[in-house]
Design goal:
By secondary structure, the chain is mainly alpha-helical. Helices cover 47% and strands 0% of the residues.
Amino acid sequence: MTFVCAVAPGCGGDDDGSDGNTSTDTDTGTGTGTGTGTGTGTGTGTGTGTGTGTGTGVTCDVCGDYGAAVPAVTSQIVDEAAADPMFEADFAPLVTAGPTAVQNFKDSLTAFISDAYGCSTGTYMGPSMEEAHMGMNITQDEYNAFVGLIAGVLMDNGVSEEYVTECFAPALTDPAFSSTIVGQ
């Protein structure tokens, strides 16, 4: 239910003293090529080949493209997770605490996400992911399902599957991050 702090160690700030507001541009693509060659000789041969390829990809600028939507999307993620039978028990104490507690949690998660993707600096003041998930014993399957819920909410709000896969998912599926939640 949380996002990786991609700009660690300060979780939103850079160690160089800058304000930490960064974007990550990642271009990905695939290409194919073909080549042919012929050779002659006894025991040795020569040949030439050429290949060409083209690729398309997505440029990731999470903050520029979607930073303003983080509060609304975060609210929807929390609401859907709290109503999902797989996560209901984890969210029950929060829901039982009442609307103010739920809103405070949404605000805290919004700050974490904004810091993690470099859209803000130092706004998240909550516990570490280990502390936040201590005693919950979240399994890898549960974690993967939560990442799937996040992806679904993003796509429901107009984010393309390619953008989710290339820009949002890598931080969430990074084993170094998921290990701060799974099994705590």
